[in-house]
């Protein structure tokens, strides 16, 4: 497939180049009919340095601080609002070039595509009438919108380099001065818009700061009032708070001492009670005297009764003292809780006071900072710049930028060559005609045996009968090559092949009363010339083969069996009645054999007219046993019999005639017969059990065939 595409390109390259050259010349000439336009450009550099003193720089929209914002600035340069401002400033809505009142020819592909789209939209929308009915805009608005759209098409904004912050504004118009003026106006308007955006943002920030400063002032006044009110409502003075703190500490100490005394007294009474329960009265008395609950003089020599009395008194005294201590602890605990509540109330009051003082401090700091920023922003309004600069103003161009004659011509040439090559390859991929040996043999499964070239001057059929059987030398050469082909089988050993055996069986199965000798008993070879479609060169090729056989001293007979496209009708003396009579006496047709200018070559034209009746009579005779008898009789008179059969896809008798032949020659017209037709023809032959003995390519243009890369056609 790739090889076929390469050869297709080689065949078509000269035509493609010639067409490309003519297209380039035509495009070059057409550029003289296009409008002459001039292009001027201005360059704008956007500030990309990041401000480190953000305290002095308003963070507002429109101020480029880094390369990441360059794309946003580019969109601003391309915005429609910017274009509208320039249109209003330069009054372009009244300029015929931009208002759409002046026509012209352009060769710009984008402009041509846009014009085609607009025309298609207008057509689908119903034309000018529909537009006029549905458009309520004034004429001034229509002109202004047209001017904006045309200026958008005429200007182009591109980044200079890949990493720079410089943008080039290019404008193309019919006037060189107008182009420069518009480019400069776009650049200036861009700077004006940037400055305006910054001033608006600065004004918004100043308004916000003013409002915020007022709010902070009100907050300070309220906090000061709250602090003063809270200071008046203080629970205790510092001296009172210090007294409360000291009293609380004293009460906690007294409570601790009382608690220790109570615990000690409880331990002593518990010990005395335990000794008394054990019966150690003397030891209990001694212990009471030892811890001071009983005087030592009393604890001397004492009786048991006196000891019990003394211990009871000690127990009662201890219980009274414990009750006193518990009462004292309760009083002290209440005092401590009171002092704590008083201290907590004072601490809460102090924390609220501290919070208010901190809020006042923070608010005063923010207030002073905002007042300072408001003052700085008021000063910035006097020296605020756009953050971009015009580094190169547009100047009137010297040479026109459009039309680009050489570039247009070269572009057209390359386009024609490109699409020509693509078209050639696509056509080659989808073509279905047989042209090379590989295509012939892969389609039919039969070896390509020979080729018959296209006649250079007169057709070989007419030339043969007009010039006393003389053929073109080249045609005669290829005819001898066809005769010498082993696939034709005329000059090889006479061993029966499968088709011959089938034909012999058909001959031997003739009706009773006829001679039952097979065709193989004679030396005659019957060839059937078949083709898929009419005008395949079959008749001329069979005539050529017959003439060559006759010159090789083979007695040759051509039987015209083509009921559809017979070329021998003019030489026929048969009538339908005579042909019907031959059904009973086939040898009667021997009287209608005619000679030819070539000695040894005879012709039997069986087609006796052009009407449907004559074709039907001939078809019936060809499929009858009488025709087999005729062939048997003729096989004793001739060495070679050539059956010129009708196209396989048009007549059913063609497959039958191929079945009764010794050899089937399948003729296909070079670069004309399609694959599907050939496959159908092969299928028709296979349906009757016949395979072509030889495949012949006819009407081959030898000069063109060389361009297909097939050495067999070279």
The chain-level structural class is alpha/beta
Strand share of the residues? 5-15%
Instruction: Give the CATH architecture of the largest domain.
Output: 3-Layer(aba) Sandwich
Categorize the overall geometry.
Answer: elongated
What is the highest CATH level, the class of the largest domain?
A: Alpha Beta
Low-confidence stretches: 52-65, 129-133, 492-501, 503-520
**What's the CATH topology name of the largest domain?**
Rossmann fold
Largest sheet: 8 strands, mixed
**Tally the helices: what do you get?**
23
- Mean pLDDT score, rounded? 82
**How many structural domains can be distinguished in the coordinates?**
4
The rounded distance between the terminal residues' Cα atoms is 20 Å
What is the C-alpha radius of gyration, as a whole number of Å? 62 Å
Helical residues, percent: 55-70%
CATH-assigned homologous superfamily of the largest domain: P-loop containing nucleotide triphosphate hydrolases
């Amino acid at each position: 497939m790739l090889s076929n595409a390469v050869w297709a390109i080689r065949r078509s390259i000269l035509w493609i180049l010639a067409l490309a050259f003519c297209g380039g010349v035509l495009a070059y000439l057409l550029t003289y009919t296009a409008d002459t336009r001039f292009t001027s450009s201005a360059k704008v550099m956007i500030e990309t340095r990041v401000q480190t003193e953000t305290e002095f720089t308003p963070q507002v929209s429109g101020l480029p601080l880094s390369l990441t914002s360059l794309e946003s600035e580019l969109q601003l340069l391309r915005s429609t609002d910017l274009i509208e401002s320039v249109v209003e400033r330069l009054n372009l809505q009244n300029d015929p070039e931009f208002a759409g009142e002046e026509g012209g020819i352009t060769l710009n592909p984008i402009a041509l595509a846009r014009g085609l789209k607009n025309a298609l939209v207008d057509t689908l929308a119903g034309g000018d009438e529909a537009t006029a009915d549905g458009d309520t805009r004034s004429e001034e608005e229509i002109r202004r919108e047209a001017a904006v759209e045309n200026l958008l098409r005429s200007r182009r904004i591109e980044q200079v380099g890949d990493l720079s912050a410089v943008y080039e504004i290019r404008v193309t118009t019919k006037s060189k001065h107008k182009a420069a003026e518009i480019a400069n106006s776009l650049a200036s308007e861009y700077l004006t818009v940037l400055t305006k955006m910054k001033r608006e943002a600065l004004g918004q920030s100043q308004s916000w700061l003013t409002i915020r400063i007022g709010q902070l002032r009100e907050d300070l006044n309220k906090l000061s009032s709250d602090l003063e009110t809270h200071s008046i409502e203080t629970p205790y003075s510092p001296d009172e708070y210090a007294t409360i703190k000291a009293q609380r500490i004293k009460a906690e100490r007294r409570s601790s001492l009382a608690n220790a005394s109570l615990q000690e007294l409880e331990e002593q009474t518990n010990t005395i009670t335990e000794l008394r329960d054990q019966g150690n009265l003397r030891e209990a008395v001694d212990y009471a005297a030892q811890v001071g609950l009983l005087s030592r003089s009393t604890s001397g020599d004492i009786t048991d009764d006196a000891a019990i009395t003394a211990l009871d008194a000690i127990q009662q005294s201890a219980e009274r003292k414990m009750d006193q201590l518990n009462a004292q602890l309760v009083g002290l605990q209440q005092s401590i809780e009171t002092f704590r509540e008083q201290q907590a109330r004072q601490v809460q009051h102090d924390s609220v006071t501290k919070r208010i003082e901190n809020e006042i401090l923070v608010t005063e700091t923010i207030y002073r900072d905002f007042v300072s920023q408001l003052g700085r922003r008021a000063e910035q309004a006097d020296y605020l710049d756009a953050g971009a600069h015009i580094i190169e103003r547009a100047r009137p161009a010297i040479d026109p930028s459009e039309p680009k004659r050489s570039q247009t011509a070269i572009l057209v040439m390359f386009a024609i060559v490109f699409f020509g090559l693509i078209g050639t390859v696509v056509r080659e991929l989808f073509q279905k005609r047989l042209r090379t040996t590989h295509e012939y043999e892969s389609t039919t499964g039969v070896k390509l045996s020979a080729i018959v070239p296209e006649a250079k001057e007169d057709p070989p059929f007419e030339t043969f009968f007009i010039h006393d059987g003389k053929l073109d030398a080249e045609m005669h050469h290829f005819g001898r090559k066809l005769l010498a082909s082993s696939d034709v089988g005329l000059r090889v050993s006479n061993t029966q092949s499968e088709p011959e055996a089938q034909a012999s069986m058909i001959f031997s199965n003739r009706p009773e009363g006829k001679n039952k000798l097979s065709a193989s008993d004679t030396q005659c070879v019957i060839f059937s010339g078949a083709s898929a479609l009419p005008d395949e060169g079959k008749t001329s090729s069979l005539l050529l083969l017959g003439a060559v056989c006759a010159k090789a001293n083979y007695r040759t007979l051509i039987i015209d069996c083509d009921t559809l496209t017979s070329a021998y009708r003019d030489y026929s003396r048969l009538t339908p009645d005579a042909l019907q009579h031959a059904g009973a006496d086939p040898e009667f047709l021997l009287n209608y054999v005619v000679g030819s200018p070539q000695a040894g070559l005879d012709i039997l034209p069986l087609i006796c007219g052009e009407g449907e009746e004559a074709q039907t009579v001939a078809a019936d005779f060809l499929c009858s046993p009488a025709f087999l008898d005729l062939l048997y009789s003729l096989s004793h008179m001739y060495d070679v019999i050539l059956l010129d059969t009708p196209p396989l896809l048009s007549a059913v008798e063609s497959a039958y005639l191929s079945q009764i032949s010794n050899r089937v020659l399948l003729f296909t017209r070079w670069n004309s017969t399609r694959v599907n037709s050939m496959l159908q023809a092969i299928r028709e032959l296979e349906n009757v059990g016949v395979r072509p003995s030889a495949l012949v390519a006819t009407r081959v243009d030898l000069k063109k065939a060389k361009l297909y890369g097939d050495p067999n056609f070279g």
